[in-house]
Amino acid sequence: MSMSMLGAETGQLETLAAQLTHTGVEIDQVQSQTQTTADTVVAEMEASFRQALQSIEHSMHQLRGTVDAAHNQLADTTWTGANAASFQAGYGDFNGAMATFEAAVGDAYVQFDGQMRSMGETISAFQVQVTSSMQQAHVSTDSMQRAVVQQQANLESAMNTGLSFG
Length: 166
Known about the structure:
By secondary structure, this protein is mainly α. The protein has helices at residues 10-75, 82-161.
């Protein structure tokens, strides 16, 4: 009687069971790696955004401080005439430009923050799908492995006790 008549050879079943165990481990690794990658992407994106915004705000405050210092020095100086008026007009224009810039930075922050939150939610939703898919794959792999182990046990039993036909 040939072993293939019983449904499989024990060596092949052992190899298949080992491969399915390895596949289950790989599934867990993929799930873990995608979670780590997703978490890293979101954290780095948020950190880069905060750093960029802080850099812009620092530069903006530095510029404003420099021009304000010049304006304050003017207050201590007796200066009249057309040039003084031009300076005051220029300072007014500067303040207007800075207010516009500060408003643009604030608006950009709100927009970028909303987009970052949306991107974070998209990445989280993706990770939920990956986790679900990997869990389903793991359940399927476990089921296949149990079938292989059961077939191997059946084959071993048949080889050890013989086949009986009723």
